[in-house]
């Protein structure tokens, strides 16, 4: 386990709702090891890491923003980097310990939570890289120093079984403590597990027929409850006070400088401007010395092509002025309804109405951003028309700062269609579909690295995996 001292500051004010109940307690020391002390650090670390990535890499690869300097990400001059890989596997080590403690204490609810978090984290890792260590990952105590890489198809198959098991074993009558995501509400953990299950079914729907699994879940809400409102969102709300503050806004070490170098893309501006979308006032800031919100840049331009940054509109910096505004979004009600809308449109589910699901999805995003949706927005502006493009554009917009989800969704659907390699790209006019394996894997886990790379056609940004 990680040797981290979790300094907890909300003892009385939080009334235990955030699960931070002990001051200066090390949840990972042998004498203190317990599920309720370990779970908060897992949820915080996961939310913090994905949020941090969404404000940098996620902005660029999903083409919400473009850097006006140091733009290697924009032009796809990518290097082997373990900044995404290592933190995720480190969190999985703690999840493994959480599950072990739950088994020792015969606590099925903590075990279920561990299964959901494990499925979520591994799904993100394989969605980013393709084939990755899974069955032998985090087993150094068993003598497995160099884990094999598992095929993405097998990983997904096993993760879906974990989610089914979690849904099955949760006991709604027994809440848990230390839960800073859902405050111990096990029904909402069930909803998270099943909503994640649906995300993963849609993700793999191009390579296998998931209609039976989709319909089995949607037709039986009592057995497979899913998100019903924004109140069910798997979103961690950082308090904004140390240590419970996102590294995006952390004083002296946040992403403020990095984020201020981002300029909104013409894609982001046009998607909202063309629809007279009031969300533009929340997501963007005016051009310097004006109130102009509509000056963006084309993504992926060569260094120097953008020119002076103050000539453009900017990203909203409200999150850096109020740290509580940064949210750690894992999965939400809006995304779920976009999933259902597409599933209905493609004939994967037999119940419901695609337009109704779409309308719920858009409305949920407005509500989540606390923006009043115009009365005619869904009937006269962003009208669902069964062509899918409007669905994907609105979904793309709603996934702003939801980890790397917009990129993952584009890899599957190749929508929105405006996402293309920029004029200055160094990747043969291709948008990358995966991260490169960490350089350490090439040297320390060389044999397994070579096997995995060969299976995918090479460790390149354009290598194909199972579902993409």
Automatic annotation (TrEMBL):
Keyword match Membrane: no
Keywords linked to the UniProt accession: Lipoprotein
PROSITE patterns per record: PROKAR_LIPOPROTEIN
Pfam families: SusD-like_2
SUPFAM superfamilies attached to this UniProt entry: TPR-like
KW Lipoprotein (keyword) present: yes
Protein name: SusD/RagB family lipoprotein
Organism expressing this protein natively: Tenacibaculum finnmarkense genomovar ulcerans
């Amino acid at each position: 386990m990680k040797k981290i001292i979790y300094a907890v500051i909300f003892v009385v004010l939080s009334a235990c709702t955030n699960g931070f109940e002990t001051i200066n307690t090390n949840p990972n020391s042998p004498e203190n090891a317990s599920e309720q002390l370990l779970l908060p650090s897992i949820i915080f670390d996961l939310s913090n890491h994905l949020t941090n990535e969404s404000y940098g890499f996620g902005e660029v690869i999903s083409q919400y923003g473009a850097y006006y300097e140091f733009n290697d990400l924009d032009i796809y001059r990518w290097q082997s980097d373990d900044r995404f890989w290592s933190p995720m596997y480190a969190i999985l080590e703690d999840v493994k310990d959480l599950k072990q403690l739950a088994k020792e204490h015969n606590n099925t609810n903590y075990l279920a939570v561990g299964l959901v978090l494990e499925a979520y984290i591994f799904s993100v890792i394989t969605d980013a890289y393709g084939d990755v260590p899974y069955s032998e990952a985090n087993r150094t105590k068993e003598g497995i120093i160099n884990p094999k890489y598992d095929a993405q198809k097998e990983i997904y198959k096993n993760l879906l079984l974990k989610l089914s098991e979690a849904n099955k074993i949760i006991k709604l009558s027994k809440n848990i403590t230390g839960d800073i995501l859902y405050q111990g509400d096990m029904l909402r953990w069930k909803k998270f597990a099943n909503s994640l299950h649906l995300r993963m079914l849609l993700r793999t729907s191009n390579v296998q027929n998931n209609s039976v699994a989709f319909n089995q879940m949607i037709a039986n809400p009592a057995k497979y409850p899913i998100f019903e409102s924004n109140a069910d969102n798997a979103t961690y709300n950082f308090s904004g006070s140390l240590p419970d503050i996102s590294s995006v806004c952390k004083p002296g070490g946040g992403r403020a400088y990095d984020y201020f170098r981002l300029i909104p893309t013409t894609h982001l501006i046009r998607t909202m401007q063309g629809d007279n979308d009031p969300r533009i006032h929340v997501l963007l800031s005016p051009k310097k010395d004006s109130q102009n919100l509509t000056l963006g840049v084309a993504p992926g331009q060569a260094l120097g092509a953008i020119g002076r940054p103050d000539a453009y509109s900017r990203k909203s910096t409200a999150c850096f002025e109020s740290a509580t505004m940064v949210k750690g979004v894992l999965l939400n009600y809006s995304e779920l309804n976009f999933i259902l809308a597409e599933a209905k449109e493609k004939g994967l589910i037999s119940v419901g109405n695609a337009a109704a699901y779409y309308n719920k999805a858009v409305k949920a995003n407005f509500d989540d951003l606390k923006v009043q949706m115009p009365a005619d927005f869904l009937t006269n502006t962003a009208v669902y028309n069964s062509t899918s493009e409007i669905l994907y554009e609105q979904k793309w917009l709603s996934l702003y700062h939801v980890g790397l989800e917009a990129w993952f969704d584009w890899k599957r659907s190749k929508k929105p269609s405006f996402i293309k390699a920029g004029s200055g790209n160094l990747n043969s006019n291709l948008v990358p579909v995966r991260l490169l394996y960490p350089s350490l894997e090439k040297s320390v886990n060389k044999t397994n690295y070579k096997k995995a790379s060969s299976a995918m056609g090479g460790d390149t940004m354009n290598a194909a995996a199972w579902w993409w």
